[in-house]
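README: folding subset

This subset contains proteins for which both the sequence and a predicted structure token string are available. Records are stored as plain text. Below is the entry for Putative spermidine/putrescine transport system substrate-binding protein (352 residues), shown exactly as it appears on disk.
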Amino acid sequence: MRLSDVLLISSLISAPVAAEELTIVSWGGAYEAAQRQAIISPFTTETGLDIEVAVYDGSWSALAERGSAEGWDVIDMLADQASVACARGLLLEIEPSSLFSQAALQDFTPFGPDRCAVPQNAYARVMAFDDRAFAGVKPTRIGDFFDITRFPGPRAIQRSPDGILEWALLAEGVPPEQIYGLLSTERGLRLAFRKLDTIRDEIVWWDDPAEPAEMLGDGRAVMAVGFNGRFFDVAQRDRAPIDIVWDGRIIGIEVWAIAATTDVPDAARDFIVHATTPASMARFATRIPYGPTRRSAFDRIGFNPDIGLPMRAYLPNAPQHGGRVLVRDSSWYANTEELRQRRFHSWLDAAE
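--- output ---
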């Protein structure tokens, strides 16, 4: 063997092997912090993989625009956004039975994995208010969000039709089970936007999910639309005087999905399997009150390690919350996205 061959083989053997890197895309803030502690760090310890976390706005269009260029691998998505992304070929198709046993597949609730996504947690879009703003009677129902006479002051709302259209109809007395059917009609959309007109001058818009709790804390708004875990985090950790109104809560499902352009599909699948074990889901729910999507995880949820609260009581589907509840209709959202956005932006433009 020539000396040059010996040197080449020696260099290959001694060269360090580059660690595989996985890019996970999430929502930032307290939500991402809980994911890092409960899911990502244990996976890194177990596998030795390098994990990079990117933040996005939750839309399938962000995946289309940024995913390939930024090397996205695993994405935390709303179920309806994943459905649209899957239909557009933006997600890697998975075979659930190759990732989970039959017993594990039956453990998922309210629905199981599909060809592009695996359910991971249940959240609620809720109304919250600044307790300091109302010295006497407090808001208790979604209708109070639209009552600027009894409860005056700015309302913080996401710059999106999501959730607020359902609430507009609830405030008009439409039963929860009829909301999505009515919003599928021209009459229903007119009724919802007419209700929004009644608070148009009191709206302050937000884009980042961390903003509504911050707006309540610093006085920019007296009521806000947001996610239950974000309000909980600011109220408990920062001792902000924020109260949640559970009436009208809209429960939705977050899923894990894999970008079609990933160059580490096996590592991405391994992460999703790890992230959706009952133990991982329970650790996550123990840190931020988003419910697990596997039945066997519920009994594992204990006290928050930082603030000592029993977290099962704060989950969005905890029975003591009472009031009306809607389950976000992912099919309706996936099928009406263009219509909703067009009508919403037309309504915004009408004010200018």
